[in-house]
Structures are given as structure tokens and as C-alpha cells.
Specification:
The protein is α/β, with parallel strands linked by helices. It has one domain: TIM Barrel (Alpha-Beta Barrel), CATH 3.20.20.70. The strands form two sheets. The protein has an eight-stranded mixed β-sheet. Strands 9-10 form a two-stranded antiparallel ribbon. β4, α2 and β5 form a beta-alpha-beta unit. α1 runs parallel beside α2. The longest helix is centred in the middle third of the chain and has 14 residues. The two termini are about 30 Å apart.
């Protein structure tokens, strides 16, 4: 089984506690206004990755990391792939799992009555991004979103999860800059402006 992914970034020191591996799923039909990852909406972008190969790669150096963070795109629009991967992770590693979804928790329970996601996810951040309610906290993009801590299949609302307020940055071999984190209002524009002033012309999409 293959999983359509946009990118894998590591190490990520935000989007959850500790040193993490970030995985971004490709494809989302929710279309939230002001989404910082709208280039991940298309189902045909990214790259098709073997779940077994991805798991083996993660497992090969899992002891160097505290957890995984899965975002997108919309991870739950590839539910079978998400659950298959997380089953391997949770049965064969000790990695903590944080997952973002644009669906609300109630919607997820209705869409996926097997509720397997409650078995494999430790922290779930749910809800559409609402631009007018932008939140400058660590893990929530907008105020309407909720952080759930899941233990033994039971989800409880958490007011906040410790995560440093900083970006994780990666530059790949194709001279692309990737930044993991939830930006504050106008923060990306400010970064681009400052880079342009010193002759670095990059645009974050």
C-alpha cells in the first residue's frame, strides 16, 4: 500500500513535544480560506510512498526521536493509509503521535465509526482553519480548533500542549526552503520581506 505524501521533514522541534519527524499528507478538499498549506490541496501532487518502506525508514532511527507529527493536506482523507502506518508505528515503536485534521472530532467519529484513530493517536488537533480567528498559540491555527489528548481510546480536551514557539527550517538539495510551524499573523510576509532586503528572493507557499 502506498501513501500520497507531500514531504517529510526532520528534525522538527515544534508541532509537539521533543524532537520529531514531520509528515505532510498530500490532498485536501476542505479548502479553508487563508490556509498556509494550500499547495497541498491537490490530490495529484507530492509523491506516492510505500508505507512499509516509510515505516522501515522511521524504525531504523526511531531511538533518535521522541515522536511523529502528521499534518497536511488532510491526513484523514487517506484514512486507510494513515491507520496502516500508525498501526505499525504503535505496535513496533515507542514514538508519540500528534495528528492535525481539518475535520472536527465529531465529524471524525461519524466518518470513521471504527474509531481506530483513537487507538493510535496521542494528540489530535481538530477543526477547520478560520482566518478571522487566527491563533498565535503553539499548535492551533485558529481559536475554534481543539487540542485532544487521547489515552486508551478516550479523548479529553487539553488547554495547551507544550511546544516551543519557534520554527523548524530545512533547505533541500533543490534549494527549496521548508518551514514547519504555525505562523503568527503576517509572519511569513515579514520573513519574505527581510530575506528580500538581503538579496534572498524566496516565497513561501
Amino acid at each position: 500500500m502506498n501513501w500520497q505524501l507531500n514531504k517529510i521533514q526532520y528534525p522538527v522541534y515544534n508541532l509537539g513535544e521533543g524532537k520529531r519527524i514531520g509528515i505532510w499528507a498530500q490532498g485536501c478538499t476542505l479548502g479553508c480560506k487563508g490556509c498556509v498549506n494550500n499547495t497541498l490541496w491537490s490530490k495529484t501532487g507530492g509523491k506516492s510512498i510505500s508505507i512499509v518502506d516509510l515505516f522501515n525508514w522511521v524504525a531504523s532511527f526511531q531511538k533518535d526521536f521522541d515522536g511523529l507529527t502528521i499534518s497536511g493536506g488532510e491526513p484523514f482523507q487517506q484514512y486507510e493509509q494513515l491507520i496502516t502506518f500508525l498501526h505499525l508505528i504503535k505496535s513496533k515503536t515507542d514514538l508519540n503521535v500528534v495528528c492535525f485534521s481539518g475535520y472536527y472530532f465529531k465529524e471524525l467519529v461519524e466518518l470513521f465509526p471504527d474509531k481506530l484513530f483513537l487507538k493510535y493517536i496521542d494528540i489530535l488537533i481538530d477543526g477547520r482553519y478560520i482566518e478571522e480567528q487566527h491563533d498565535d498559540s503553539n499548535l492551533k491555527g485558529s481559536l475554534n480548533q481543539t487540542i485532544y489528548k487521547i489515552f486508551k481510546g478516550v479523548a479529553e480536551i487539553e488547554s495547551e500542549i507544550k511546544s516551543p514557539k519557534k520554527w523548524s527550517v530545512k533547505v533541500d538539495l533543490n534549494n527549496q526552503i521548508y518551514m514547519a510551524g504555525i505562523p503568527k499573523n503576517n509572519e511569513l510576509e515579514e520573513i519574505c520581506h527581510n530575506l528580500n532586503k538581503v538579496g534572498i528572493h524566496k516565497k513561501f507557499r
